[in-house]
């Protein structure tokens, strides 16, 4: 069962990675572009992005640096708190996610959702919720804040 689960995860990851690569994005890029694109103004604190992704500060900082070099995001000092940093989705970043998102949704639907029955989806959702709540810290459960502390 465990090996089958891991094989499924690897196969889905490879399929999704290939689809995103067609648009010049990695799964890590996409994981950060989604919450930024869903936030009014496209601006979040790094800490909020860390909560959403479950990533530590080091991984997040490295990924943001790579994305900033490619023009997908920009980091800037908070205008009301010199100690705080904000991350903003750039027009290039927005264009990238808007181009990739329809294919991403279609890929997930075709290779995951559509192959399961409604009952299997309900069961898998319950299992994923239970396992996630015991296996990881509760990241991403708080509402993102717009204050400037990082």
Q: Can you walk me through this structure?
A:
It is built from 6 helices and 3 strands; from the N terminus they run H-H-E-H-H-E-E-H-H. The chain is mostly helical. The protein has one domain: Winged helix-like DNA-binding domain superfamily/Winged helix DNA-binding domain (Arc Repressor Mutant, subunit A, Orthogonal Bundle), CATH 1.10.10. It has a 3-stranded antiparallel sheet with strand order 1-3-2. Helix 1 runs antiparallel to helix 5. 17% of the residues are buried. The C terminus is likely disordered.
Reading off the top of the CATH hierarchy, the class is best stated as Mainly Alpha
C-alpha-based Rg, rounded: 17 Å
Contiguous helical run count:
6
The separation of the N and C termini measures: 41 Å
Average pLDDT level = 91
Q: State the low-pLDDT regions, or none.
A: 138-150
| Assembly state | single chain
Number of domains: 1
What is the third-level CATH name, the topology? Answer: Arc Repressor Mutant, subunit A
Strand content: 5-15%
CATH superfamily: Winged helix-like DNA-binding domain superfamily/Winged helix DNA-binding domain
* DSSP E strands, number: 3
Helix content: 55-70%
